[in-house]
Amino acid sequence: MGLKAVIPVAGLGTRMLPASKEQPKEMLPIFDKGVKNVIVKPFVQRVFEELYKAGFRDFYFIVGRGKRSIEDHFSVDEAFISQLLSKGKGALVEDLSSFYSMVLDSRITWINQHKPLGFGHAVLQVELAIGDSDTLLVHAGDTLVLDDEGREHPLIRELIKLHEELRPDALLIVKKVPNPQIYGVVTLGKNVKSHVYQVDNIVEKPKVPISNIASMAIYSFSKEIFNALKKTPFSAKGELELTDAIRLLINEGRKVLAFLVPEEYVRIDIGTPENYWEALKTTYRIALRMIRK
Description:
five-stranded mixed β-barrel, about 35% helix, Spore Coat Polysaccharide Biosynthesis Protein SpsA, Chain A, single chain, 13 strands, about 290 residues, globular
């Protein structure tokens, strides 16, 4: 496939303090189906595994100060595996070894964002490292969009298939939500094909939402996104917003599309205490259902 996945995880996670003071919020645990039982794993590991299952092998993690625990977690620890085996923890070894096999089969690059200057600024840091690839996927490290079987990778595969077919400069995963004020919110135009629409506008966390359709922080881009980011001014908060760069693409007449996921898909995110509580309940329920099948 030759595609590259960018996972920005350099944000401060202030809404999850004090838990996020000494560990990145992306390392907060959620539940998942293990070999024999429900297991607990860091959120960012689950994001990585879903992208791996979708076919990605090139990963670019955008990290910042205090994010070393993510790098440590993605370093294979054979001594720990041996220790688990000596204690008869075979099922746990199988679960961890599966993750390690994905890590060893991937090319993982760590790129430092020296200051937390926004999601768009984090994406811009990857420009030099990405090489001549003309398509990249950007996936927030604190978000998942799961189908009724608790999977995201089929959705990611569909996103890439649509990008290759339609060749937009930006393709967004979007979903109808009850509380759009906390998201980037879009208005949709003409229907391009099943579930795919032209994006007419996008606004980051509007006080008065322009619609009830929100970006799920999962995107595919052409390299034109880097030019747009360079031309985008910093927000009043002193951050370079990815949504502002997408709106610039729209205003320049570039092809910006959205894939509107069906209602049954569920967004899992850990951006606020309330959302994290829902993420724990939902992932446990899904994992338990999968174990009992």
